[in-house]
Known about the structure:
CATH superfamily of the largest domain: P-loop containing nucleotide triphosphate hydrolases
Distance between the termini: 23 Å
Strand order of the largest sheet: 5-6-7-3-8-9
Largest sheet: 6 strands, mixed
Number of strands: 13
Mean pLDDT: 89
Shape: elongated
CATH topology of the largest domain: Rossmann fold
Low-confidence stretches: none
Radius of gyration: 21 Å
CATH architecture of the largest domain: 3-Layer(aba) Sandwich
Order of helices and strands: EEEHEHEHHHEHEHEEHEEEEH
Amino acid sequence: MGATAIQTKGLGKRYGSFWALENCDIVVPEGSVSALVGPNGAGKSTLLKLLVGLSRASTGEGTVLGKAPEQHEDFLSEIGYLAQEIPLYKSLNTRDHAKMGRHLNKRWDEAFITKRLDELGIPLDRPVGKLSGGQRAQVALTLALAKKPKLLLLDEPVAALDPLARHDFLSSLTQAVADGGLTVIMSSHLLADLERVSDHVIVLAAGKTQLCEDIETVLGEHKLLVGPREHAAKLDGVNIIHETHSAKQSTLLVRVTKGAKVPPHWQQHEPNIEEIILAYMGQAKEGGAA
Length: 290
């Protein structure tokens, strides 16, 4: 693993007696695109707000680009944050937003905004409230990128978009990452979309971290096993993440430890990342270990 962009240890946020996030341990490599996934109420938005300094942790600690998160210009100048609501002023056009950005950001690239939105066919002089949902999302992404951040945090940016608009948005994001020097964490419920653009995954469920790893490693170490039910309790060197049983047959989603061998009477299949993520989310719901 190369340099680390984000690291948290025991990070938690409590509102009264309710823990929105608890014992969150993550490590995000620099230059990665991390899919942040989990059910509603899992703590995804809470984590992003903690990382950008919009909320203060109740327990634990975290570093973002080597610094503790805070609402300070030196920290925020390197962070791009796009909230789920796409925070734009509907009565203002894109040029108006660009002018505001020029006064608020050290490394503002107004020429980038003009060039990118012209390529996308989005008018700069039309109030953003009169743009389509996909166009507004592209404007918001463009403004976030124009500050030349090292880290981009996206909270459900494509949730309300149609399939074509989602595709265009994710293609734009992929191009921005390919240009270099950018780390991304993107929260979404749309696992198939995230799989196309991500190389790292963070799974939150029940307010805790269930998984935080490179997607290639996750895919390589998980297997879907199908075999006789009576042998399900006799597997060594595997961690059962999820299991279903019929009268005679068991189907297990397992993580195989290094050097372990699965007995030949088990049929082995390669699960996709969506199947693995759903298994970890189900494990948390059933009270499994994080």
